[in-house]
Amino acid sequence: MSWLGDELATIGGAAQCGLRDWAGIWGDPALIAGPLMAGYALLGWGLVRVARTAAGRERQLILLCAVLVGVQMLNTPLDMHAFVWTFGRCLSHAQGWYEARRSVQVGALMLTVVFFALLFVVLLIYFRRHLISNLLIIAGVALSIGCALVVAISLHQLRDLMSGTWGPFRTDDLIEASGIALAGLGVALRLWGARRREVPDRL
């Protein structure tokens, strides 16, 4: 029981350390965070409008995309995923396995890839009849959120690759913004098509 108490105390201390470090890294630079949040908000609003024109599983698919976009909009200023890594870093120091952290990061990346691959297969089967008609929306949401997940893993090789700069902007920010724009294009096309169907034929 004393061992368990010591472990719980270690984990509690690491959690406090992780919270402190996490609070110190909230948010992206204002130059990109503001536009990204605005883009996610606008995209989420558009997705809800598209969902109103859909039915059945297609509506579920669009609403799922809207929920993911909403979560990522909130995550942009808070970096909620970062707590996992700040906590892990503090815990690794406390338990003495900090030097082996690279293996843990690689393992976390592989588990994340496997989880999302399985999730993708399940969603592919469930929504199979509505994927092509919503391909731009799905691809855009997957690109923007997938980019954020890759950055969240914080594996050094990937972080170095994704943190290149184009003027004042980082590569990962541009990829994320491109995903938002691609999904936004899909939303605009869906809304335009729905509006055309509502206009009576004057011929």
Radius of gyration: 21 Å
Shape: elongated
Helix content: over 70%
Multimeric state: single chain
End-to-end separation in angstroms reads 83 Å
The string of secondary-structure elements, in order, is HHHHHHHEEH
The total count of strands amounts to: 2
| Biggest β-sheet strands, sense, barrel | 2 strands, antiparallel
| Unreliable spans | none
Tally of structural domains: 1
Question: Number of helix segments?
Answer: 8
Mean pLDDT comes to 81
Describe the protein in words.
It is a single chain. The chain has 203 residues and is mostly helical. It has one domain (2-198). It is 80% helix and 2% strand. It has helices spanning 2-23, 30-52, 56-78, 82-95, 101-126, 135-153, 156-162, 171-198, and strands at 165-166, 169-170. A two-stranded antiparallel ribbon has the order 1-2. It is elongated, with a radius of gyration of 21 Å. 20% of the residues are buried.
Summary, kept brief:
By secondary structure, this protein is an all-alpha fold.
Question: What is the secondary structure topology, with strand pairs?
Answer:
Elements: H1 2-23, H2 30-52, H3 56-78, H4 82-95, H5 101-126, H6 135-153, H7 156-162, E1 165-166, E2 169-170, H8 171-198
Helix pairs in contact: 1-4, 2-3, 2-8, 3-6, 6-8
Which tags fit this structure?
single chain, 203 residues, mainly alpha, two-stranded antiparallel ribbon, 8 helices, elongated
